[in-house]
Amino acid sequence: MVRRLRLAACLLAGLSLPGLSLPAAAEPPRRVLSMNLCTDQLAMLLAAPGQLVSVSYLAQDPTASAMAEAASRLPVNHGLVEEIFLARPDLVLAGGWTAPGAIRLLERLDVPVEVFPVETDIAGIRANIRRMGEVLGRETAAEALLARFDADLARLTDAPPGPRPRAALYAVNGYSSGSASLAGQIVTLAGFDNVADTLGLPAGGVLPLETLLLAEPDLLVEGRRYPGSARGQEVLDHPALRALTRGAPAEVMTDPEWVCGTPFILRAVAQLRDARLSLETAR
Question: Whole-prediction pTM value?
Fold first, then answer.
C-alpha cells in the first residue's frame, strides 16, 4: 500500500515536469482571414473585435453581400495565395467552392485553412454557425446567434396545414432549384410547394419555359437581372412568362439573401411568406 501511494505521488509530481504537463487549451486565432463570401459574413457576425483582418472583395459588393457596409471597414483580399501568405494570418477561412489548388498551396505553406461546406438546408446553416464559433473561439457568441436565428425562423414558418400554394424558381438560362438546394429550402420554409420537385429537379436544373407554363405555379420567383446584355437573361423577358405573371407580379431573388447560408436567408423567407399571405387573402 505504501509503495502504491509513493508511485501515485511520483506520477502527480511528474505532471509538473516539462513534457509531462497536461495540454493547455488552444488559444483562439488572433489574425483571421476569410477568402469566401459566405465565410466572410459568418465571421463578421461572430469574430471578436480586431480578430478578422481581411474579407473577400465580394463582401463589400452590395449586390452580393448582406453585410457590405460592415465589410467596407475591413481590408479585402482577392483569394490569391501570395497576398494571403503575406498577410500572415493565423487562420484562413474558405468555402466549399473555393479553388482547391489555392487551399492545397496554403496548406503546403503551413497556413492553417478551415473549409466550410456549402449549406443546402437549415441543419447545414446551424452546423456552420456552430463550427465558426468553435474555430474562432467564440462559442458563446455562436450559441446566442443560433438562438436568435431559431426564434426568428419559428416566427416565420407559420404555414397552415392543408394544401400549399405552388411556387417556381426561374433564373438565368431557365435554371430552377428544388428542395435539395438552399433556394429551394427558402421556398419550403415560406410555406410553398416547389414546382421543381414535382418535375424531377430536386437538386436543380434547366426547366424548359414550356414546362413551366404548363405547371401554372401560383407564384413565380425570378432570378435577378444583371447590368448589360446577355442571352441567358432574355428568357426572363419572354412574353409568355410575362403573361404567366400578369395580375400576380413575380418576386425577385436578391443574391445577398439567397446565395449564402447565413441568418440573412430569413429576409428571403419573410419576402415569400408575405407573398403567400397575399395569395391566401386573394382566394
Answer: 0.86
Number of residues that this document lists for the chain: 283
Torsion of Cα atoms, 246 then 280 then 207 then 249, to 10°: 30
pLDDT tens over the chain, length 283 residues: 444 434 334 433 443 334 444 344 579 999 999 999 999 999 999 999 999 999 999 999 999 999 999 999 999 999 999 999 999 999 999 999 899 999 999 999 999 999 999 999 999 999 999 999 999 999 999 999 999 999 999 999 887 787 899 999 999 999 999 999 999 999 999 999 999 999 999 999 999 999 999 999 999 999 887 777 778 788 888 998 888 887 666 899 999 999 999 999 999 999 999 999 998 887 7
**Euclidean distance between CA atoms 63 and 81, whole angstroms:** 26
CA distances, 111 to each of 50, 144, 223 (Å): 19, 30, 38
Round to whole Å and give the CA distance between 205 and 168.
Answer: 12
Residue type, 63: T
Residue type, 248: A
**Cα-flanking dihedrals φ and ψ of residue 135, to 5°?**
-70, -25
Closest CA to 75 of 88, 224, 165, 264: 88
For 8-42, give one letter per residue: b (16+ CB within 10 A) or e.
Answer: eeeeeeeeeeeeeeeeeeeebbeebbbbbbbbbbb
What are the φ and ψ backbone dihedral angles of 147, each rounded to 5 degrees? Answer: -60, -45
Euclidean distance between CA atoms 14 and 116, whole angstroms: 40
Residue type for position 161: P
